[in-house]
Amino acid sequence: MKQLLSFLLFLLVMAGGVAATVAVFGDDKRTIALEQIMYAEDENVPLATSIDLDLSDIPETFALLSEVFDEPISTRSVKQIYMDVSDPSLDERILHHIVDLDVMFEGRMTTLTVEAEVDREDGVYVIFYFKGDEDVVLALDDRINAYYEELGI
């Protein structure tokens, strides 16, 4: 009987060791796979840039970003973006698709995807993410960085 209990205890310890090993090393494999997806250099994955701002700064900021394009983003589109992100039923700290904008950049039409994350902790703040063709996103990123430099950020 004592040998049977010792054997059962041995099996229990071994099973715990296997479970702990899978828990520790199994997550690493999933993490590595996720990193490979996030940093994949796939031509189908659009490049992105972002800017964070107060809700009241949306019209001014989109006017500033419009300087990158041949034609400014329409006032109607900016108003719709403002209405969408100011909606109190919009979940906080979750990335939401807001709009796909057709913009004219260097003489050609392209689509700029606008996504947003809203934070209402101390006022309403929005982080906008812009995805699209590489040259468009890089031009937006340069304009956003210049804007941050103007503000001293």
Report on the architecture of this protein:
The structure is a single chain. 14% of the residues are buried. 49% of the residues lie in helices and 25% in strands. The chain is globular, with a radius of gyration of 24 Å. The protein has helices spanning 2-38, 58-65, 75-86, 134-151, and strands spanning 47-54, 96-105, 108-119, 125-132. It has 2 domains: 1-43; 47-151, Beta-Lactamase (2-Layer Sandwich), CATH 3.30.450. The chain has 153 residues and is an alpha+beta fold. Strands 1-4-3-2 form a 4-stranded antiparallel sheet, covered by helices on one side. It starts with a helix and ends with a helix.
Keywords summarizing the entry:
4 strands, 2 domains, Beta-Lactamase, 153 residues, 4-stranded antiparallel sheet, alpha+beta, 4 helices
CATH class identity of the largest domain: Alpha Beta
Number of DSSP strands?
4
Strand portion, in percent?
A: 15-25%
CATH architect. name of the largest domain: 2-Layer Sandwich
In total, how many domains does the architecture comprise?
Answer: 2
How would you characterize the largest beta sheet? Answer: 4 strands, antiparallel
Query: Helix tally?
Result: 4
The name of the CATH topology of the largest domain is Beta-Lactamase
N-to-C order of helices and strands: HEHHEEEH
Low-confidence stretches: 7-13, 15-40
Instruction: Give average pLDDT, whole number.
Output: 79
Measured as a percent range, the helix fraction is: 40-55%
- Rg over alpha carbons: 24 Å
Based on helices, strands and strand pairing, what is the structural class? alpha+beta
Shape: globular
Cross-sheet strand order for the largest sheet = 1-4-3-2
The first-to-last residue Cα distance is: 73 Å
